[in-house]
Amino acid sequence: MGDLLILLSAVLFGFSPILIKVAYSYGVTPLTVLALRYAIAAILFWGGVAVLGVRLSFPRHAILAPVVMGVTLVPLQIFSFLLALAYLPASSASVLAYVYPLHVAWMGWVFLRERIRWDEVALLIVVVTGAMLVAGQTPVIGARPGLVAISVATLTNALYYIAARRMLRDLLPLPVQGILLAAGAAVFVSAGALTGRFSLALPLPALLAIFGTAVLGSLLAPLLLLGGLRVLPAARAAMLGTVEPVVTVLLSILWLGDRVSFVRAVGMALVLVGIGLAHVRRPL
Predict the structure, then answer these.
(1) CA-to-CA distance for 82 and 78, rounded, in angstroms?
(2) How far apart are CA 45 and CA 4, in angstroms?
(3) Taking a C-beta distance cutoff of 8 angstroms, is the pair 86, 144 a contact?
(4) 91 burial class (0-12, 13-18, 19+ CB within 10 angstroms)?
(5) Are 153 and 206 in contact (CB under 8 A)?
(6) Residues whose CB is less than 8 angstroms from the CB of residue 131 and which lie 6 or more positions away in sequence, other chains included
(7) Quick check: 107 and 219 in contact, CB under 8 A?
(8) For residues 59 and 71, which has the higher predicted lDDT (pLDDT)?
(9) At 11, is the secondary structure helix, strand, or coil?
(10) Over the chain, what is the mean pLDDT?
(11) How many angstroms separate the CA atoms of 183 and 281, rounded?
(12) Do residues 136 and 266 lie in contact, with contact meaning Cβ atoms separated by under 8 Å?
């Protein structure tokens, strides 16, 4: 069940770049996308909780961690990735971003004492290599600000897996998701208001695209990810999550008319075979 939750979250996350690209095509700024995305997701989440009468439990000794994570780690990861895109080609940024499962593996061993065997390390490298081939080309060396930014994004993404895995020992996924959404919405809406780059005067197709990425990328996918992280080691969850670029590339081919190269096809095969082998092996 944990594997299924992570794979479903990766599939839903894979839709977000396509929908965000649609919003960008109408001239919507990244900050507007982020502010609306988190605000819509937070309203839907807490509105659903109120309508359904769901009672969420927030132990006092554990509530501070997701609040801090929601106002620091999550916004930093997203902002640093957007900053990297300003200096690096999208393919290069994606290549470096999908190295994060390797960081999750060593961080999980250091901070959570989740051991990983050498043969499992080899399998992880195969999957990450496949994700890199799917994502793009060899990174462009020389754009130092972009390389620094994508390094921060990669490390903070790995830290998200580790921090979430640790938090879920004390909290259930539902309350964690609620806190992260509320905190993220507060940060991005405040940033948009303070900078004057937050606009609601958007074309209907752009609004629909942002609504889609809010539901899929900020509401459902993270909740599934947290559910998977509650029962799976962080390294295994990160490995399964590398199916996300495969989904994004397939959608770009079917929806946006992108062409698949031989290298990308090989990368998709490596990711899918690696994930299949990880699934049939014993849990990490």
Answers:
(1) 6
(2) 22
(3) no
(4) middle
(5) no
(6) 98, 101, 242, 245, 246, 267, 271
(7) no
(8) 71
(9) helix
(10) 82
(11) 38
(12) no
The 8-class DSSP code of residue 123 comes to H
Which residue matches tokens 């900053």?
83
Return the amino acid letter for 44: L
Greater pLDDT, 57 or 23: 23
Number of helices followed by number of strands (H, E) in the chain: 14, 0
So what's the pLDDT on residue 225?
Answer: 93
Q: Does position 88 have pLDDT exceeding 70, yes or no?
A: no
**DSSP letter (8 states) at residue 91:** H
**Higher confidence at residue 252 or residue 204?**
204
Q: Which one-letter amino acid corresponds to residue 82? A: L
Q: Which two tokens stand for residue 148?
A: 């620094």
Q: Counting beta carbons within 10 angstroms of the beta carbon of residue 57, is it exposed (0 to 12), middle (13 to 18) or buried (19 or more)? A: exposed
| Separation between Cα atoms, residue 117 and residue 179, nearest integer Å | 35
Q: 243 vs 136, which has greater pLDDT?
A: 243
Rounded to 10 degrees, what is the CA torsion of 64, 65, 70, 73? 140
* pLDDT tens sequence across 125-166: 887 777 777 666 545 555 677 778 888 988 998 999 999 988
Residue 277, both tokens: 């082998």
Which pair of structure tokens corresponds to residue 197? 């780059």
Question: Tokens 């080309």 identify what position?
Answer: 137
